[in-house]
TrEMBL record:
Keywords carried by this UniProt record: ATP-binding, Nucleotide-binding, Transport
Source domain of life: Bacteria
This protein's name: ABC transporter ATP-binding protein
InterPro entries: AAA+_ATPase (IPR003593), ABC_transporter-like_ATP-bd (IPR003439), ABC_transporter-like_CS (IPR017871), P-loop_NTPase (IPR027417)
Gene Ontology terms for molecular function: ATP binding; ATP hydrolysis activity
Ribonucleoprotein keyword on record: no
Biological classification of the source: Bacteria, Bacillati, Actinomycetota, Actinomycetes, Micromonosporales
Family matches, as Gene3D superfamilies: P-loop containing nucleotide triphosphate hydrolases
Family: Belongs to the ABC transporter superfamily.
Pfam families assigned: ABC_tran
Domain spans labelled ABC transporter: 8-233
């Protein structure tokens, strides 16, 4: 991999587990010098995708490459791609510094890399403390330090903010932004839209293993914010739901018995009801709340599996 070509290209990536399409013909690109948020609800296929990127799960089809090269074909992958898949674990009686030095030795890196990585994540003061005394936030930092040992151009993190307190989340956000500002490619998964709004330059949104949206965060969220939703009430819920679904709208039943429709405007919902001979008791278009659109775009797809 040469400098400047650290893009991650995911092309028609697919993973089937028996009948379940955990990842289904997924294609997207992750650019260098930017933080890309990989967003989707629980079970959307984020972890499976990241594990395929890292050669830990064999795809049923498609490819994922770093600068054109598959992970397993990279020469000294630790120098190209750093990954934090779950909160780090280390021998509980070992110090953070020794944990990192062991990884250095195994990977043929100088011990100095351990000190540098600890400094980068602000763990130098705890370098000689035992892992068993580390808080969750410190364990997360140590995991990131381990990923940084080979000074990789690409960083991949799976839900790194999970379990962190607000200060820890802010710290993580600043670190990832700084790493991207150094020109690195940073891909970070999350199921929380709000978290990505504050962190990501680009977003890739998936649901039920399939791509929902990708692009610069402002553009994607802007298009979502511009979406309207329609509140509708009918005594013929099933007939209307079927007619709207046939027009690719997403229909969510509300606790008060009304239906919330996304993907069609009020006129189109009214027209669909009319042509399907469905009686309406209420029909109102409203501007959608961003979080609600995200939930609907993604939850609507989850039912397909
Ligand atoms: N080894 C496996 N065998 C069978 N099914 C699996 C396996 N790994 C994952 N799955 C299924 O694939 C789907 C996608 O899971 P995955 O963990 O990739 O989603 P996710 O988006 O990372 O979700 P979460 O945020 O909950 O981790 C889920 O339905 C999961 O149960």
């Amino acid at each position: 991999m040469t400098a400047g070509s650290e893009e991650i290209v995911v092309s028609h990536l697919t993973k089937h587990y028996k009948q379940l399409r955990a990842v289904d013909d997924l294609s997207f690109t992750v650019h260098s010098g930017r933080v890309t948020g990989f967003l989707g609800p629980n079970g959307a296929g984020k972890t499976t995708t990241l594990r395929m990127l890292l050669g830990l799960v064999t795809p049923s089809g498609g490819t994922a490459t770093f600068g054109g090269v598959r992970y397993n074909d990279l020469d000294q992958p630790i120098r190209h791609v750093g990954a934090v898949l779950e909160a780090s674990s280390a021998h509980k009686g070992r110090t953070g510094l020794n944990h990192l030095r062991m990884i250095c030795t195994a990977a043929g890196l100088p011990w100095q890399a351990a000190d540098e990585a600890l400094a980068k994540v602000g763990l130098t003061p705890a370098a000689k403390r035992k892992f068993k005394g580390y808080s969750l936030g410190m364990k997360q930092r140590l995991g990131i330090a381990a990923a940084l040992l080979g000074n990789p151009r690409v960083l991949i993190l799976d839900e790194p903010a999970n379990g962190l307190d607000p200060e820890g989340i802010r710290w993580m956000r600043d670190l990832l932004k700084a790493l991207a500002a150094e020109g690195r490619t940073v891909l970070v998964s999350s199921h929380l839209l709000g978290e990505m709004q504050q962190l990501a330059d680009d977003v890739v949104i998936i649901a039920a293993g399939r791509l929902v949206r990708q692009g610069p965060v402002g553009e994607v969220l802007g298009s979502m914010a511009g979406m309207t939703q329609v509140r509708v009430r009918t005594p013929q819920v099933e007939a209307l739901t079927a007619a709207l679904s046939a027009r690719n709208a997403t229909v969510t039943p509300l606790p008060d018995g009304a239906l919330l429709v996304t993907g069609l405007d009020a006129a189109a919902v009214g027209h669909t009801a009319f042509t399907s001979s469905v009686e309406l008791h209420e029909l109102a278009g409203e501007r959608a709340d961003l979080e609600q659109v995200f939930l609907q775009l993604t939850a609507g797809k989850a039912g397909i599996r």
